[in-house]
Every structure is written in structure tokens, then in C-alpha cells.
Amino acid sequence: MSKTVSITSAAQFDGLLKSSRLLVVDFYADWCGPCKQVAPVFEKLSQALSRENLVTFAKVDTDSQKDIAQAYNVTSLPTFIVFRNGKVADKVTGANPLKLQAVVKKLSDEAASLQNNGGEGSSGGDSDDNWRGAGLPRGYTDITSQIEVQRTDLLNVDLTTGGVRALFQSSKPSALSKGKSATKDWVESDTDQQLMLFLPFQSMLKLHTIQITSIPPTESDDDEDDDEVPTRPRTIKLFTNRPHNLDFDEAEDMAATQQIELSESDWNADGTANIPLRYVKFQNINSLVLFVVDGEGDSEKTRLDRIRLIGEAGEKREMGKLGKIGDEPGE
């Protein structure tokens, strides 16, 4: 009996992305001759390597499931996509059995590692060393690594908390881990609730979503007995394609590329707000200024634990050179 899953809906596909560590998908059509030629190879691999909740093989008919095919930019058939923890890890286009077998050989080794470790492989997206506070929107990846960290600039930061680099760590925030951390891996504002963060990028980005994690301590936290308990951001302004950081008066008066108002319901159990952007306004950007205008409470401090950028990375630019592309629209 075939172990390959035939996808009949987007909901079913999303379920497999969440339930299986590794998902190998054959995008095909009944009228496609090359698809039929390579189908037996795919089926043999499915029979040999399928592992419940670890490795799943699936087929997507691009005629009946056009939305799924479009979401992953499938423009030629057959196309094979390997997903790892819900993210695109590899892609093979065309009826190329040798290339498909090479990709799946790599998959086979990883599957064996997953099985030997009881399903807890080192590449898991939810591990403490590769942590993200919210899931990825379909078709996009985590591009936080595109930040040119050495040129970032953070204004009004309390110097007794972690530096700006702490915001982009891939590790799980210490506030969500057991026990106390010896070092503070988050940042807090200093004299008031406002923070101004300048992020230059290594390449031109198409930014789809920002994920912000903020985990203020409770008032009963022993470490905060002598300090004012910080709060989460409420109002955030975003400015794109700036050659350097803004000052606070300038940012207060300037029209933002997008202004965001967060409420308590926007924060999930891991203290993360998943913020979708007006995608058309965040195409081809080489920098971002994130301005925390105010926090949600009366505290004079706001806190940020992690920031993740989700989207697509384009052509890499020469490091250290950042030019303003054009004027921002005034709305």
C-alpha cells in the first residue's frame, strides 16, 4: 500500500507541514509526461523513507490545488519541494531522478538521525538553539540573518540590559527557560518608554512580517524588586530605506511607512506578536527603522527580547554601503 499522501485541500497540506518534521512534496499534473516518468522513483523513495510524524511524502495536483502551487511559486512540472519544520529546505525542478535521489539521500541521512534521537533532531525549528516565537507565513522564510548587525543602532537603551545583538539571537529567550540567566539577553528603554532601532541589511529585502517577542517579568519577580517592571510595546512606527537612524523628534513628526497598534490579544503564549506588513510598501528595502513610540502600561520602560524578520532576500549588496532608494510615500 502506498505511503504517499494525496493532498485534497490547503488545510490538509498545512496540517502535514505542522505534523511532520520533513515533508517531501511532488507537484504534478495528470497531463504532464515528465511527471509520469519520474513518479515511480518518487513512489519508491516514499516506500523506503516514510516515517510517521518524521518523514512524509505527498503529491499535489497543481490543477486541482492551484492555490498551494502558487503559494510556493511552482511554475514548471514536475517540481519537488522538501520542507523541514514547515520551511522550504530544498527544491528540485524537472524530471531529474538523479538530482531528486541526491536530495532525498541527504533527507534519508537526516531521517535516520531523527529516528535515532527519538524525533528530536538538531535541525528542529523549535529547539532552544533555533527558536522562533511564532510560525512562518506560507511561502516565506526567516531572513533575520540579513541584518548587518555591526551597523545597527539602538537609541535610549538601558545599558545594564543586553545590547542590540541580543535581539537577533537564535536562542530561546532566557525568560522562557527554566532557571535564571546570568546575563540579560533582552533590552529595555532607559529614560522613558521609547526605543529607536536602526536595521541596515546585507541585501535588498521583501519584508512580509515582523515578529517581536517581549516578555516583561511579573511584579513578584525577585530580580525586579528594586527596579521598575517594564512593559510591552503598544505603538510602533516603521520607516524604510533610511541611510541612518532617526532622532526621536524627527520620527514623531514624520509619516511612517506603517504604524502598528498592538493590544493584549496580539501577544501569544510565548510573548510574541506576529505583525503582518503592508507588503507592497516593503518591497526592495535596504534598511528599516523601528520606533517604539509607547508601551501598553504606565511603566517608564519598555522591553524587547527578540526580533525576527520574515520575507525574501534579494541580491546581496556591498557591505557597508547603504544608499537611500527613494522618497517614502506620505501615507
What does it look like?
The chain is an alpha+beta fold. It folds into two domains: 5-116, Glutaredoxin (3-Layer(aba) Sandwich); 141-316, Jelly Rolls (Sandwich), CATH 2.60.120. It contains five helices and 15 strands. It has helices spanning 10-19, 33-49, 66-71, 97-116, 248-253, and strands at 5-6, 22-28, 55-61, 79-84, 87-93, 141-142, 153-155, 187-188, 195-213, 233-240, 258-261, 272-276, 285-295, 303-304, 306-316. The strands form three sheets. Strands 6, 7, 9, 10, 11, 12, 13 and 15 form an eight-stranded antiparallel beta sheet that branches. A hairpin with a 2-residue loop joins β4 (79-84) and β5 (87-93). α2 runs parallel beside α4. It is elongated, with a radius of gyration of 23 Å. It starts with a strand and ends in a 15-residue tail after the last strand.
Provide key terms for this protein.
PITH domain-containing protein, eight-stranded antiparallel sheet, 18% helix, 5 helices, Glutaredoxin, Thioredoxin-like_sf, Thioredoxin_domain, five-stranded mixed sheet, elongated, 331 residues, alpha+beta, PITH_dom
Question: How many domain units?
Answer: 2
Level-1 CATH class name of the largest domain: Mainly Beta
CATH architecture of the largest domain: Sandwich
DSSP strand count: 15
Report the sheet-strand fraction: 25-35%
Major β-sheet profile: 8 strands, antiparallel
Q: How much is the radius of gyration in Å? A: 23 Å
The gross shape turns out to be: elongated
Residue share in helix: 10-25%
- What is the H/E string? EHEHEHEEHEEEEEHEEEEE
The number of helices is 5
- Poorly predicted regions are 117-127, 222-226, 319-331
Helical/strand content category: alpha+beta
Q: Report the span from N to C terminus.
A: 58 Å
Full CATH superfamily name of the largest domain: PITH domain
The CATH topology of the largest domain is Jelly Rolls
Overall pLDDT confidence? 84
Protein name: PITH domain-containing protein
InterPro entries: Galactose-bd-like_sf, PITH_dom, PITH_dom_sf, Thioredoxin, Thioredoxin-like_sf, Thioredoxin_CS, Thioredoxin_domain
Domain PITH: 132-329
GO molecular function: protein-disulfide reductase activity
